[in-house]
């Protein structure tokens, strides 16, 4: 799917950062989005936010880092909009976050599913979307390759 269509901003939703490929994949997607002129906002748990904050401490790739509950409230109560949403999933909680984002947003949503249970978690995503799914845990290259198969970065 072509995503570089004046999308404006993208929300990257992060759960617990137990699997090492999450942070690398987030920064990779954010860098690609930023290069395309798309504002990047990360919403996550406290630990996930800190990993991103210190990995991109000068804000080269991430424009804003926000609390996940704050973002959900801002979308529901204040009508905050993000035309693109990536939800990073490595456990059941991530599937729940993806379902929540699908139900409250009118966005193009990409579940980015990784970790040893990626295949099983992928089957739990029942709403319509294009999934990015690889059972990667430490080596980010297979996940990056799958991201590049699904996302068309160049117009």
TrEMBL record:
<protein>
    <submittedName>
        <fullName>DUF1890 domain-containing protein</fullName>
    </submittedName>
</protein>
<dbReference type="Pfam" id="PF09001">
    <property type="entry name" value="DUF1890"/>
</dbReference>
<dbReference type="InterPro" id="IPR036608">
    <property type="entry name" value="MTH777-like_sf"/>
</dbReference>
<dbReference type="InterPro" id="IPR012033">
    <property type="entry name" value="UCP006600"/>
</dbReference>
């Amino acid at each position: 799917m072509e995503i570089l269509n004046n999308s404006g901003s993208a929300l990257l939703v992060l759960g617990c950062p137990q699997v090492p490929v999450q942070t690398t994949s987030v920064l990779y997607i954010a860098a690609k989005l930023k290069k395309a002129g798309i504002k990047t906002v990360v919403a996550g748990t406290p630990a996930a936010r800190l990993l991103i904050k210190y990995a991109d401490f000068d804000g080269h790739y991430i424009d804003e880092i926000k609390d996940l509950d704050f973002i959900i409230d801002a979308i529901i109560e204040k009508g905050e909009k993000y035309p693109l949403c990536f939800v990073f999933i490595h456990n059941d909680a991530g599937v729940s976050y993806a379902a929540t984002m699908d139900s409250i947003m009118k966005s193009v949503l990409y579940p980015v599913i990784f970790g040893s249970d990626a295949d099983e978690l992928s089957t739990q995503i029942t709403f319509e979307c294009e999934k990015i799914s690889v059972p990667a845990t430490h080596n980010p290259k297979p996940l990056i390759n799958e991201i590049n198969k699904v996302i068309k970065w160049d117009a």
